[in-house]
Design the sequence.
């Protein structure tokens, strides 16, 4: 049995498990910023090293494939007021903490972080670290659009402690890029990559997407020729999620333009094989890295972690997210900020607590399942004995079907994912997802597995 044989059975709408429960499954009825802050304090008292995610939502033009929260404008006068709002939100947290936090991780996401001028990003980072100490082994990273990233951006952020960069490549073909309205060139990708190396960034990541409109196997072959030449340390090889109801820009092309079903899975399998042939290791869902990279070493040591910022070598209990729509995690609770930029800025101006839109407080069952799903998605295995949980007969029976299909192997207290099963890791996680099993959905809340 191979992946193509199993496609029809497993290509269903399933969560990406950035969190458990997935956001559409949160219980939000009792949302309270005060309750959220209590969970922040409890987590901080256990460990004062934290992660920070900063959502920078502005873009100069709309990339039509994108499902992220963004605001399109060419008016750069918005930069400083937004940064001041983010720093005011940060102050809402630090004034409540009993001591200075230690920042282990910062990630600037978006939107387009490099929409902001280098000096304004410096203003942001200076404001963040003024309220905290920085861990000696910190990881600071940012998402770079090749079209707007200058040498000065990389130089200024390197001076502020940034050591990782994620470049939004998506595809190298100019026709595909015009179709998705992504304005950039091969030369710009190469230039930013070489600048990062010149300045001593420890890790360069490329974001690549399979399943884009008009994309074929020949396009992927060319993409991997470029990857082979530039040899980034990490590759995030994402599936294009066609959700025009969520991202109306995707209506710029039709489903007839998209590789689907077996054609789309064939692109993924081709890409995976090509990356592994180049020496990249498959270290997590959609993620590949070179043996020398810290992510690979963390995977080999079974220390790899996953949070709202993606795969990481650090496991901080508390991840505070600042900016419109961003999602924070205290380990025992989640909180999402106001999604719309206007409401976010209004509430920052008028309120004393973070502008929380909704929260979810994790139950004891949630916490157990969350850890099990993290083990599957980070280590491709889960051990109930190690997790002090009961590998029940009923749960074993649910896994039996996947074992018969060759996706995993069942042991007395353990499940291990097979190489074939790695292609369907999201489906495997759903076996553990108690909330998904109980949910009644009028329409799919998630993208398909492939």
Sequence:
């Amino acid at each position: 049995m191979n992946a193509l044989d199993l496609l029809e059975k497993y290509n269903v709408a399933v969560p990406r498990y950035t969190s458990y429960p997935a956001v559409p499954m949160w219980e939000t009825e009792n949302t309270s910023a005060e309750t959220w802050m209590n969970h922040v304090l409890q987590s901080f008292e256990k460990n004062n090293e934290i992660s920070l995610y900063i959502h920078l939502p502005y873009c100069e033009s709309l990339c039509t494939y994108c499902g992220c929260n963004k605001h399109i404008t060419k008016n750069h006068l918005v930069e400083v007021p937004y940064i001041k709002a983010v720093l005011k939100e940060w102050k809402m947290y630090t004034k409540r903490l009993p001591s200075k936090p230690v920042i282990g991780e910062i990630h600037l996401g978006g939107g387009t972080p490099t929409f902001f001028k280098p000096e304004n990003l410096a203003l942001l980072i200076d404001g963040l670290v003024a309220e905290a100490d920085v861990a000696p082994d910190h990881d600071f990273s940012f998402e770079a659009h090749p079209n707007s990233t200058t040498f000065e951006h990389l130089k200024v952020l390197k001076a502020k402690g940034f050591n990782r960069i994620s470049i939004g490549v998506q595809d190298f073909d100019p026709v595909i890029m015009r179709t998705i309205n992504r304005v950039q060139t091969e030369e710009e990708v190469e230039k930013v990559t070489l600048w990062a190396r010149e300045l001593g960034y420890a890790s360069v990541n490329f974001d690549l997407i399979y399943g884009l409109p008009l994309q074929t196997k020949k396009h992927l072959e060319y993409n991997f020729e470029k990857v082979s030449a530039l040899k980034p340390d990490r590759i995030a090889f994402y599936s294009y999620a066609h959700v025009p109801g969520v991202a109306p820009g995707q209506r710029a092309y039709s489903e007839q333009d998209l590789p689907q079903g077996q054609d789309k899975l064939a692109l993924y399998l081709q890409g995976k094989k090509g990356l592994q042939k180049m020496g990249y290791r498959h270290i997590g869902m959609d993620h590949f890295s070179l043996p020398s990279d810290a992510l690979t070493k963390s995977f080999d040591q079974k220390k790899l972690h996953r949070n709202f910022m993606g795969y990481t070598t650090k496991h901080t209990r508390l991840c505070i997210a600042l900016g419109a729509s961003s999602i924070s995690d205290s380990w025992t609770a989640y909180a999402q900020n106001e999604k719309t930029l206007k409401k976010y800025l209004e509430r920052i101006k008028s309120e004393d607590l973070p502008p929380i839109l909704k929260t979810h407080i994790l139950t004891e069952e949630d916490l157990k399942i969350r850890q099990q799903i993290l083990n599957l998605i980070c280590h491709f295995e889960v051990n109930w004995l190690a997790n002090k949980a009961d590998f029940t007969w009923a749960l074993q029976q649910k896994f039996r079907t996947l074992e018969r299909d060759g996706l995993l192997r069942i042991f007395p207290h353990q499940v291990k994912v097979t190489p074939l099963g790695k292609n369907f890791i999201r489906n495997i996680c759903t076996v553990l997802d108690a909330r998904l099993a109980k949910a009644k959905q009028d329409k799919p809340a998630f993208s398909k597995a492939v």
